[in-house]
Design goal:
single chain, 7-stranded mixed β-sheet, two-stranded antiparallel sheet, disordered N terminus
Length: about 325
């Protein structure tokens, strides 16, 4: 899978671009229902959705990949608790690999980064293209609310979700079909004023090997994020969609890179896990510990990270 994470800059923005290449399969929605009896409540008219002619092939492609991965035992949804003994050193080094590195376009390559995170409350807002039906919108909204609650508890940081239809959040999550995404440039510029055109093209020209992506932005070159945008493909089957929400919405909080040493974790290109694991929540807890601060280098943060990791492992034993 192609994965690209590198800094992008605009006049008023510095952006850390986070892309996750995931693969998943499909669980169809059950639309057929028995005809109502004489006393049943009136049925809502059947929903008529616009059809994106580019979506059928994309949907088949992602479904096939998920089926293959799940057949190999990948895309697990358990928390991975029994897989690995987490020691303070293992937890600390995993955190450093994930949070204090940027992933580059070359597979497996990374570069050192300062600590980046949100200092203001995070408020996700979900926006769907016209091709996504009402039932899927409601289900996705519920999934994101549950995810936000878990992450907010782990980070001890305010993380909420705006009501459906409310785009006033500072972390915009767009669920778009192939054609909708290609035509979303103006909407992206409206949501993130001053965004660099290269960053816009990363979304509108996104290759099919990139299953979802997120970009987090810091104003005036700061390491403290103020806004973000994520894109989820509407063609994804259920588990892929959920996996994309888990990875992009958490990486947009500042856990920016993937690493082969991260296990059990979604922050690993091997795709063994589809959803946030217990280890991932510990990484998030470290990231938002008040003893750390945006802009810290690895050299500054390392002793603090090891101290926090020791406390977390001792508290879990």
């Amino acid at each position: 899978m192609a994965t690209t994470r590198r800094p992008e800059r605009a006049a008023a923005l510095s952006a850390l671009v986070l892309t996750a290449a995931l693969a998943a399969g499909c669980t169809s929605l059950q639309r057929g229902e028995p005809a109502p009896g004489p006393s049943a409540a009136p049925q809502r008219p059947a929903e008529v959705l616009p059809v994106d002619p580019r979506s059928a092939d994309m949907r088949a492609y992602y479904t096939r990949i998920e089926d293959e991965r799940r057949a190999r035992g990948l895309m697990r949804t358990d928390p991975g608790t029994q897989d690995v003994v987490v020691t303070p050193a293992r937890l600390a080094e995993t955190y450093i690999a994930i949070a204090l590195n940027n992933e580059l376009s070359t597979p497996g390559a990374s570069s050192a980064s300062v600590l980046r995170r949100w200092e203001v409350p995070v408020r996700y807002s979900l926006e769907f293209g016209a091709s996504t039906g009402r039932a899927t919108r409601v289900r996705d909204y519920q999934d994101v609310r549950a995810l936000a609650a878990r992450m907010g508890t782990a980070a001890n940081h305010p993380i909420t979700v705006a009501p459906l239809g409310d785009s006033s959040g500072n972390f915009h999550v767009l669920v778009l079909s192939e054609s909708e995404r290609q035509e979303a440039g103006e909407r992206i510029r409206t949501l993130i004023p001053g965004i660099d055109e290269r960053a816009v093209r990363l979304i509108t020209d996104m290759p099919r090997e990139t299953f979802c992506l997120a970009m987090a932005f810091a104003r005036d070159g700061s390491a403290a994020y103020t806004e973000a945008i994520a894109v989820i493909r509407a063609e994804h089957p259920d588990l892929t969609r959920l996996a994309c929400y888990h990875e992009e919405l958490s990486q947009g909080l500042g856990l920016a890179a993937d690493s082969g040493r991260a296990r059990p974790s979604i922050f690993n290109d091997d795709q063994e896990f589809a959803l946030l694991t217990d280890l991932d929540l510990l990484l998030l807890q470290i990231h938002y510990d008040p003893r750390l601060r945006p802009g810290m280098t690895e050299r500054e943060a390392r002793p603090i990270i090891f101290s926090i990791a020791s406390e977390l492992v001792a508290g879990a034993s």
